[in-house]
Amino acid sequence: MQKSPNPIDKHVGGRVKMRRMLLGFSQEKLGEALGVTFQQVQKYEKGTNRIGAGRLQDIARILDAPPSFFFDGGPSESGEVRSGFAEDKGAGFVVDFLSTVEGLQLNKAFASITDQKVRRRIVDLVVAIAASGKAESD
Question: Is 115 part of any domain?
């Protein structure tokens, strides 16, 4: 019988993946820095294999993030998502989206736009598209 990954392990692994992708690291590159195979990195990112405290400290150093970063927005023991002072209940969705290739590409491209007026118009456009898509599905 195969056991499903612990929600905390999945969350921490997802945050490792998000940070790795944000920095442009491949699984192979992170694995080399850790002294493990890329397959092991895959297992960490899926939550299949737990990341020990020492290994998490190494990952945090390599990915230039505090260890607490990997737990931010994670599920509590009851399974519900913990929120910080500034986070709302939808923060988990944002983290999930930013963990995708498309989310990272969109975020990087948007961040590279320096003209505030252009950025505002893009946000307005995306909000309008989302609203029209929601109205069509109602």
Answer: yes
Question: Model's pTM, two decimal places?
Answer: 0.66
Determine the 3-state secondary structure of 47 from DSSP: coil
For residue 94, is it within any domain? no
pLDDT tens, residue by residue, 77-86: 555 544 444 4
Residue 92: inside a domain: no
- Co-location of 73 and 107 in the same domain: no
Indicate if 52 and 83 belong to the same structural domain. yes
- 18-51 confidence digits (pLDDT tens): 889 888 899 999 999 999 999 999 999 999 999 9
15, exposed or middle or buried, with CB in 10 Å at 0-12, 13-18, 19+? buried
Question: In this structure, are 74 and 40 located in the same domain?
Answer: yes
- Side-chain half-sphere CA neighbours of 20 within 13 A: 22
Residue 116's alpha-carbon distances to 27, 105, 128, 130, in angstroms, are 35, 19, 18, 21
The backbone region for 79, taken as left when phi is positive above 0, alpha when psi lies in -120 to 50, beta otherwise, is left
